[in-house]
Design a protein that fits this description.
- This protein has six helices and five strands, in the order H-E-H-E-H-H-H-E-E-E-H.
- With 158 residues, it is of the alpha/beta class.
Length: 158
């Protein structure tokens, strides 16, 4: 598990770029990246696509995907990551979608359920299903950290 400084430095040194598409993390992944001096060398752009309409308009998430699987799903996290990578013309697209709480959960999709994704390489996408606990702020922070860890894993594959 690399630090955010190591991730930003490696991206910059390898002349690779990253873009983010966030729902439940609300810009926290992007903010964590840009907290590092020199992030402008590797961070292209970030979207906070909280509504389904924003996911479709800005990232190309399909209405059919949202209807069949919901916004909080592997499929939506995949389309968000691919969409932001394509839109931003970045080497990596990182996504987050989930239920931070305290409300909004259901027995099938409880509070703390988060999907993070990373699109990279030749149309490859890695997605992780997370079951996080704690209050809203804690869930969001844990999800952002997990997304950056996933980015680090994907960087090692490229």
């Amino acid at each position: 598990m690399a630090s955010i400084e190591q991730i930003v430095n490696e991206l910059s040194n390898r002349k690779l770029t990253v873009a983010t598409a966030e729902s439940c993390t609300g810009g926290l992944i992007a903010s964590t990246i840009v907290d590092v001096p020199g992030a402008s060398d590797c961070f292209n752009e970030g979207y906070v696509t909280y509504s389904n309409e924003a996911k479709m308009k800005n990232l190309g998430v399909k209405d059919e995907t949202l209807m069949a699987f919901g916004a909080v799903s592997t499929e939506t996290a995949t389309e968000m990551a691919k969409g932001v990578r394509r839109t931003a013309k970045a080497d990596f697209g990182v996504s987050s979608t989930g239920i931070a709480g305290p409300g909004g959960g259901s027995p099938k999709k409880p509070v703390g359920l988060v999907y993070i994704g990373c699109a990279y390489g030749d149309n490859q996408v890695a997605v992780r299903e997370l079951h996080l606990s704690g209050d809203r702020t804690s869930v969001r922070k844990q999800a952002a950290c997990a997304a950056l860890d996933l980015l680090d894993e994907c960087m090692k594959k490229l």
